[in-house]
Amino acid sequence: MSATHTLSWSDELLLGDPRTDHTHQEFIDLVNATTAAAADQKLGVYRQLVQHTIEHFAQEERWMLACGIQPDFCHFGQHASVLQVMQEVERRALNGEVEYIGSMIEALVEWFPSHASGMDAGLVSYLQEKGYDTATETFKEGATADSAALPSCGHAPDQPCA
Ligand SMILES: [Fe+2]
Ligand SMILES: [Fe+2]
Fold this sequence. Notes:
Number of helices: 4
CATH topology: Four Helix Bundle (Hemerythrin (Met), subunit A)
Shape: elongated
Strand order of the largest sheet: 1-2
Oligomer: single chain
Number of domains: 1
Radius of gyration: 17 Å
CATH architecture: Up-down Bundle
Helix content: 55-70%
Bound molecules: fe (ii) ion
Distance between the termini: 32 Å
């Protein structure tokens, strides 16, 4: 097992929203479980990772929409591109081409920490500013929904969203 095929949880990945942090820990566990799985189990574990990622991204996107963030915001686009590749790898593996799972995991290991500390961290602070409670998916009493600036997506303000 190569170091580039696993992720470790660290305090740097803690964003301070318990639901987000829990989901991210589960994501990391499933990435590592895919790497650790025996060859004949790998596709099954990878499919659990894909399913979990669908729900993980949908959860964040539901929160963004609830707070009035438009669906063309780059955070949605980044989720969609990652998921599209993950599902293509799943489709190929179901056709017997399982060798792409390893490079997919390598790409996710590379991608996840910067996504978490950029877009997801920006989202968490935006939700907190808006008074949106991710546990109940409602606004806290007295929340001033209009006062927050749009979340940072990890780019400098003068750089376009990629
Ligand atoms: Fe996330
Ligand atoms: Fe995200």
